[in-house]
Recover the amino acids of this structure.
C-alpha cells in the first residue's frame, strides 16, 4: 500500500531526481576542482623553473637568487629542484662545477630533445625514479641562444590529491545537507499535492455511496485546485439532480394518489346509482331520473378531470408552445369573461365590476383562448368564494412595459398556511373557494402554467376575512399594432 501511495511515488521521484543531479554536479565539480588546482600548481612550478633558469643563465650574478629559490621551493612547495648541465650532470647554480647535490632523475631522450629545442616539458603520472605519482616540470637554461642545461622540478601529486579531496569532502557535506533538505521539502510538497487528491477520493467514494453533501476543501488556484472545484461543482449538481429526482418521484406518487382519490369518488357514486337501477330500487320515473342525473353529473366530473389533466400535461410539457400567437387586448378579453359568467354572478347575487384606464392598454402577445381560460378560472373561483351581496372586481393597468390584471373578491379569504399550496395540483385547502362537488383541484395549477408559458407571473394576496386578490402580470408587446377601439367599463354592476 505504501509503494502504491502517490505521496511515496512523488517523494521517491523528486528525491531520486535531486540525488542524480547532485551526483552529476559532484563529479563535474570534482573534475573542475582537480583540473583547476593541477593547472595552478603546474603554473607555479613553471614560474619557479624559469626563475631558476634565468638566474643560472646569469652566472655568478644569480648565485644568491638561485640558491634562495631552491631553498624556498624545497621548504614551502614540497618540491625537488635540480639544476643539470647540458651533459646531464648536476651542478651548483651559477657554478660549472659539481655539487654535492643528489643526482637528478634521468630524462628521456624525447624530453632532452625538447629541452635542447628551448621548450618547457610538463608531465604527470607514475615516476619510477620516485616510485610514486609525480608532477614534472623541466625548463631549459638558455644562454646566448644555446642550450646550457635544464632546471628539473619534481613535486608529488599526493598533496594535490589530498587538497582536492578535502575540498570535495566539503562539497559532499554541503551536498548531503542539501539532499536532506530537498528530501524533506519534497516530502512536504508531495503531501501537500496528495492531500486534496485524497479528499477527492473520499468525496468520490461518498458520491458512490449516495452521499453528495461532502466537498473538497482547497484554496489552491492551480490545476489540482481546478480539479477540486470541478468535483465540488459536480457533487453539488448531482445533489441537486438527486433532490429534483426525489421530488419528482414524490410528485409522481402524490399525483397517482390524488388521481386515484379523485377517480374513486365519482366511480363509487356511479357504481352505487347504477347498482340501484339494476336492483330496481328506482320504483318511479322521478327516482330513476334522479339516479340517472347523479350518474351524468359524475360522468361530467370525470370528463372535466381528464380534460384538465390533459391540458395541464400539455402546458407543462410545452406541447402547444403558444401556437397561433396573437395580439390579445385584455380589456376586451376581461369584458368577455365578465359577460360569460354574468349568469353565475346573478345567481349568486354578486356584483362584478371591471375597471380599466382611459387610455387603451397595449396588447399582450399570446394565445387568446388560453388567456381567456386563465381569467375565466380566476373569476369563477372568486364568484364561488364570495357570498351573496358581495363584490368581485376585475382591474387592469399598464406600467413599465407590463400589463397587470387583478381579480379581487370579498369572500372569506385564504388561510396563511394554504397560500403557498394553492398552486399545487389537486390541492383543496378552502372548500368554500371551489364549486361544491365539481372542482378537480387543477384550476390554479393550470392558471400558473399558462401565465408562465406567456413569460408572465401570477401571485395571490389574502388575509382571512378580507377576501383574496389574484394578480396576473404579463409582458406587453414591444411595438403595439394598430389598436382597436374598445369600450371602457367602469364599476358597472351586473343585474
Amino acid at each position: 500500500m505504501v509503494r502504491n501511495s502517490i505521496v511515496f511515488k512523488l517523494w521517491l521521484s523528486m528525491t531520486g531526481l535531486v540525488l542524480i543531479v547532485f551526483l552529476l554536479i559532484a563529479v563535474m565539480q570534482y573534475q573542475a576542482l582537480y583540473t583547476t588546482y593541477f593547472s595552478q600548481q603546474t603554473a607555479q612550478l613553471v614560474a619557479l623553473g624559469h626563475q631558476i633558469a634565468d638566474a643560472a643563465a646569469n652566472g655568478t650574478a644569480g648565485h644568491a637568487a638561485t640558491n634562495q629559490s631552491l631553498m624556498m621551493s624545497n621548504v614551502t612547495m614540497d618540491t625537488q629542484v635540480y639544476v643539470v648541465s647540458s651533459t646531464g650532470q648536476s651542478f651548483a647554480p651559477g657554478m660549472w662545477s659539481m655539487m654535492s647535490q643528489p643526482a637528478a632523475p634521468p630524462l628521456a631522450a624525447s624530453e632532452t630533445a625538447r629541452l635542447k629545442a628551448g621548450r618547457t616539458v610538463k608531465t604527470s603520472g607514475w615516476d619510477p625514479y620516485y616510485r610514486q605519482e609525480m608532477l614534472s616540470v623541466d625548463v631549459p637554461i638558455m644562454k646566448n641562444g644555446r642550450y646550457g642545461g635544464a632546471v628539473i622540478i619534481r613535486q608529488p601529486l599526493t598533496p594535490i590529491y589530498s587538497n582536492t579531496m578535502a575540498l570535495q569532502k566539503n562539497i559532499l557535506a554541503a551536498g548531503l545537507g542539501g539532499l536532506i533538505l530537498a528530501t524533506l521539502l519534497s516530502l512536504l510538497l508531495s503531501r501537500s499535492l496528495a492531500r486534496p487528491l485524497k479528499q477527492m477520493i473520499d468525496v468520490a467514494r461518498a458520491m458512490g455511496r449516495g452521499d453528495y453533501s461532502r466537498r473538497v476543501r482547497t484554496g489552491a488556484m492551480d490545476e489540482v485546485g481546478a480539479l477540486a472545484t470541478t468535483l465540488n461543482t459536480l457533487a453539488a449538481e448531482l445533489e441537486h439532480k438527486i433532490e429534483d429526482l426525489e421530488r419528482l418521484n414524490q410528485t409522481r406518487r402524490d399525483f397517482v394518489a390524488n388521481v386515484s382519490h379523485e377517480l374513486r369518488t365519482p366511480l363509487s357514486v356511479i357504481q352505487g346509482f347504477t347498482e340501484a337501477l339494476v336492483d330496481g330500487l328506482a320504483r318511479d320515473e322521478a327516482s330513476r331520473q334522479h339516479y340517472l342525473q347523479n350518474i351524468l353529473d359524475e360522468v361530467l366530473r370525470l370528463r372535466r378531470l381528464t380534460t384538465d389533466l390533459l391540458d395541464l400535461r400539455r402546458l407543462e410539457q410545452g406541447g402547444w408552445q403558444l401556437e397561433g400567437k396573437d395580439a390579445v387586448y385584455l380589456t376586451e378579453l376581461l369584458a368577455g369573461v365578465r359577460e360569460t359568467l354574468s349568469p353565475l354572478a346573478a345567481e349568486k347575487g354578486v356584483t362584478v365590476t371591471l375597471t380599466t384606464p382611459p387610455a387603451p392598454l397595449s396588447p399582450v402577445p399570446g394565445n387568446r383562448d388560453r388567456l381567456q381560460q386563465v381569467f375565466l378560472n380566476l373569476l369563477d373561483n372568486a364568484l364561488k368564494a364570495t357570498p351573496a351581496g358581495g363584490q368581485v372586481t376585475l382591474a387592469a393597468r399598464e406600467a413599465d412595459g407590463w400589463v397587470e390584471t387583478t381579480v379581487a373578491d370579498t369572500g372569506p379569504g385564504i388561510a396563511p398556511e394554504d397560500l403557498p399550496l394553492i398552486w399545487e395540483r389537486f390541492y383543496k385547502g378552502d372548500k368554500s373557494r371551489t364549486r361544491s362537488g365539481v372542482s378537480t383541484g387543477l384550476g390554479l395549477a393550470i392558471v400558473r402554467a399558462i401565465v408562465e408559458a406567456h413569460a408572465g407571473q401570477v401571485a395571490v394576496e389574502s388575509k382571512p376575512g378580507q377576501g383574496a386578490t389574484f394578480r396576473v402580470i404579463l409582458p406587453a408587446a414591444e411595438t403595439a399594432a394598430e389598436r382597436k377601439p374598445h369600450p371602457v367599463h367602469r364599476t358597472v354592476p351586473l343585474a
